[in-house]
Amino acid sequence: MQPVECGSCGNRVLVEKYSPTHTSTQWLEDAETSCAEFREQATNGVHSMYVRTCGALTKSIDEAVADGDIAESHRTVPVSGSTEEVRSYA
Hints:
By secondary structure, the chain is an alpha+beta fold. The protein is built from three helices and five strands. The strands form two sheets. The chain has a three-stranded antiparallel sheet, with helices on one face. A two-stranded antiparallel sheet has the order 4-5.
């Protein structure tokens, strides 16, 4: 996973990009404490477990990918029923 900093609030997360539509994000701090969008949602009674993402952070991740700072990862997993063959996903 690679670090990305939100261009809006400066919060840092770890990111793994598996495809243009599949991004895995690991928060390093509590989202409702460190992220303005999550904090605002929480004050309105919608807590982070129900909020999919922060728009500003998504924009920052997309920009990091476009700039080449985050590259797509390739996963290799066993094919069902076999320990010899593997299927690689980009």
